[in-house]
Amino acid sequence: MSVVVAALYKFTRLADYRELREPLLDECLRLGVRGTLLLAEEGINGTIAGDRSAIDAVLAWLRRDPRLADIEHKESEDEALPFYRMKVKLKREIVTLGVPGVDPNARVGTYVAPTEWNRVVNDPDVVLVDTRNHYEYGIGSFRGALDPGTSSFREFPEWVKNNLDPTRNPRVAMFCTGGIRCEKASSYLLQQGFETVYHLRGGVLKYLEEVPEAESTWEGECFVFDNRVSVNHRLEKGEYDQCHGCRRPITQDDKLSERYQKGVCCPACFDELTTDQKTRFAERQKQVELARVRGEQHLGADCAASQRERSAISMEE
Question: Which residue numbers delimit the Rhodanese domain (predicted)?
Fold first, then answer.
């Protein structure tokens, strides 16, 4: 039986978000669901995985709260659970921009349905911006999209300040993995005086789900914040693996490099990591391999999932 992977978020006022944590975690654990959900006063965000009935039950549990009754989600499938455990975490923001006063609950840009996206971004007066991080852009993006070159979403406002001007670029279209970063980014751009800000409803994942590949302007694969690392246009597990030293996506060619060491480093981070870090990562990988031989699961293998919780959709995406 295939595993359903559901990415979800909702900006809404959750003044009691701390009290929601334990009941939500208990429900997920009872149903055998794994993944990470973030709760904050501004809403909920995360990705969970489980069998069909379990995912439906969690979504039904959430939607019983009137504030989450219309929560949307995107689905894909995997052959096995792409997470090691279930976590519900309390945060200041469900996606971290780090700019006070940016409130998608009060004001956001203009949603564009996936089926309308190509028409909107083909307008030469619209500037198309990828709000994701540089390693995400590197494995796939929309044709003609600008890459801000950021390593975290917190860097996006500075890039906007240095590269966009509301008087010269009054119309901007933005996209991200599941739609959440664009909610906050569009609110920020409107705050900065941009006239019209479009954002892709449901993000890249919804676009890949609804737009036929023959009509698509998406090129490459889409990075996802779980153990699949990336998905292709059919929302199947992609061709990329992940370096457990820097957590960047890596190719099979990267693994052939003299600078690649499984579980330790890759060509991109070989010169970035200290000797101490490489030693620690090598010991961790050794323990992972020993546990595998014994038929056990070593929690050190969860490093990819832990990083995705710190990365900026799901987590800090």
Answer: 122-216
